[in-house]
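Tokenised fold entry reproduced for absentees:

. . .
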Amino acid sequence: MKKKLIVIASILLLIPCLVVGASFFLKSADVAKVDKKTSKQEPPRQQAPKQASEHKIAYLTIDDGPTKYMSAIVAALKKENVKATFFLVGNNITGDRKQAVKEAAQAGNSIGMHSMTHDAKKLYKNGQFIPEMEQESTLLNSLLGKQIKLIRAPYGSTYLSAMQIKNAQEKKYRLLDWNIDSEDWRHKGKPQEIVTSIKEQLDKFHKISPVILVHETEDTLKAIPSLVKAIREKGFELMPYFEDNDFHLNFRKDPDL
């Protein structure tokens, strides 16, 4: 009888233990399922930053100054909050036009050299291209207090001899030609036609910066508001071109020029 009572008591004590153990096992299984499910889920991916839209830059280059229109052109550019690059003829830098050159540089525009005479025969046939650039460099240095290394060959670099190119490289000149010719001489007295011509050519530029050629004339002065608007509408920002620019453009396709 005693043995039966002991067995019954043992069974009664064992039942709560089994219940507790089963409950613990079931909870552990649920936790394991949750952990397994969680482990299968991919961690949230870090979103790559959105790429900024391609920054498109255009360069407006103005040749053959300084003329009587230079100060007004500088003022018109300033009003539009843009800057340009002026390629100057040394023999034109006289009298009041010296002050106009200073004002252009002080306003953040780039100043480049376009020879002393703009005379093709002297520059190319008589070999005066480098000497004239050196002479103009001295002139501008005395006027602006800095050495200018940016040059543009009158009528383009295609007229330069191999020796002239070599000398330009040795003197660390940066030569800039153009890839949009406004042909403003064809549209004399019609500034809106100049704007239209440039605007149509801008449509071809997707990977390379347009370098726009105009001349320092009254037509250019009158065209500036519409021209700046047209360039911006095409998605370009106008910037001045300085000699330390990483972007090279010359008809010779020479990365060292």
